[in-house]
Amino acid sequence: MTADLPAPGVFRRLAAIVYDCFLLFAILFVATLIPALLFSPDIMGNEAANNSVVHELNSPLEGGIYRAYLLSFIIVFYGWFWRKNGQTLGMQAWRIKLESHDGSKPSWGQCLIRLLVAIPALGFAGLGYWWIWLDRDGLAWHDRASKTRLRSVPKTAKNNRNG
User: Fold this and answer.
1) Local structure of residue 124 (DSSP, 8 states)
2) Which of 42, 80, 86, 101 is deepest in the core (most CB within 10 A)?
């Protein structure tokens, strides 16, 4: 169905990432707020802590466990959207859809591989994204690694409201 649709360019991909980062920031903020309120009694009304300018968070909000906790939110965020309809909110706004090479929805394994390879693809000055200009199929590093691809979704015709 979408196999004949063109792949989106680098800038559309990056614009969708920026959109998604705003939503993901809000989700991670709330995810951080929950353990901060649960494990930091100083935040919950300790007057000595309220008189100081800087509040320190307790140890449950630092280290590897906390990073894994936040990473699980990121994996579920992208995985849920990609598995549900192939699009995050940013991808919907920029009319981009993710699919497996056979045109089906990506599996959880493909979503995880895609995320794990996208981190260095973006981290090396975006080289994994700029790579689509060199790739014969227009695929980024994480597209190749996860056996997925992005497709541009055409605009839908709007209803004529004359009358």
Assistant:
1) T
2) 86
- Enumerate the domain spans of the chain: 10-152
| pLDDT in the model for residue 163 | 45
CA terminus-to-terminus distance, the chain: 34
Successive 10-residue mean pLDDT values, the chain, 163 residues:
75 93 95 80 54 55 84 95 95 95 94 94 88 91 95 74 49
Backbone angles phi, psi at 151, to 5 degrees: -130, 145
Q: What angle do CA 91, 94, 96 make, to 5 degrees?
A: 50
CB-based contact 151:96 (threshold 8 Å): yes
DSSP 144: H
Task: Provide the H-helix boundaries in 54-152.
Answer: 64-85, 89-93, 108-123, 127-130, 141-146
Distance CA 101, CA 151 (A): 11
CA 20 to chain CA centroid, Å, is: 6
Which residue carries 């009694």 as its tokens? 41
CA 28, CA 72: separation in Å to the nearest integer?
A: 10
Which region, left, alpha or beta, applies to residue 140 given φ > 0 means left and ψ of -120 to 50 means alpha? Answer: beta
